[in-house]
Amino acid sequence: MDVHQARTFLEIARSGSFVAAADSLHITQTAVSARIRTLEGLLGRRLFIRNKAGARLTPAGERLLRHARVMVQAWERARQQVALPPGRREGVIIGGELSLWRPLLADWLVLMHRQHPDIALRAEVDSPSSLLARVQDGALDLAVLYHPPTWPNLVSELLQEEKLVLVTTDPGGAFLPDQYVQVDWGAAFAANFQAAFPETGAPPVSISLGPLALTYLLTVGGCGYFRLGAAQPFLDEGRLRRVSNAPEFSHSAFAVYPGRSDTDVLQLALQGLRQTASTGAAPTI
Fold first, then answer.
1. Contact by Cβ (8 Å): 119, 91
2. Of 251, 240, 243, 191, residue with least CA distance to 216
3. Where would a tag sit more exposed on the chain, N or C end, judged by fewer CB atoms within 10 A?
4. How many domains does the chain have?
5. Taking the model in full, what pTM does it have?
């Protein structure tokens, strides 16, 4: 079994679909099927049962899961160590959702550079599902996400308790449905918003990235839900106002990392995240 076969096997097991695995790995479905056929031939066992609903593991496939994860994780760690630039004793790869990079993860990068200049840093942006899968298979040392679902063998540690608040540019602090700017804060928020404001129809403007939506709101006017930490400077300046009696929603950030990983570099990275989240110790440049 080579690392490509192992990674393909794990992705099918995670997604429950050969098609979804092909999309995630950016290869053709034919290539996915060929890798699994080769792997099944090497092991002499069928690994998946395929039907209209997708693909599920056979008992032999279930037994292979742990070994495939160990293999991929060992390969990723070896690749990272071999590729370290001169003067660096260790390396850490961190991933995060796009809206978490400013300021939390940007500040973390600055802090790590100042406190641990001998550690090589690699930062990536990806979707929550991809980040979780990459932490599990060892391609990322840790990831920072909003409200991650529970995954086997992964720890989700609360870093920063944040809340989403409804703000407006209206001088009277009114909620104006026809000027509502919708931000994609995830499925849980969308359900909560719909329950709180059932009369609100399709918004005239929908933006997936919070900082971009806030810039739009401050320029054009309107109202919308934003992280309190991001909106607070503009509330203090009087450019925004809180909509009175509007519900607040939780939107906390978590660090996700392997439960059995206890390397020194991971602990240093986590300490830096905790420090940055609690104090904002390193100013963004």
1. yes
2. 240
3. C
4. 3
5. 0.71
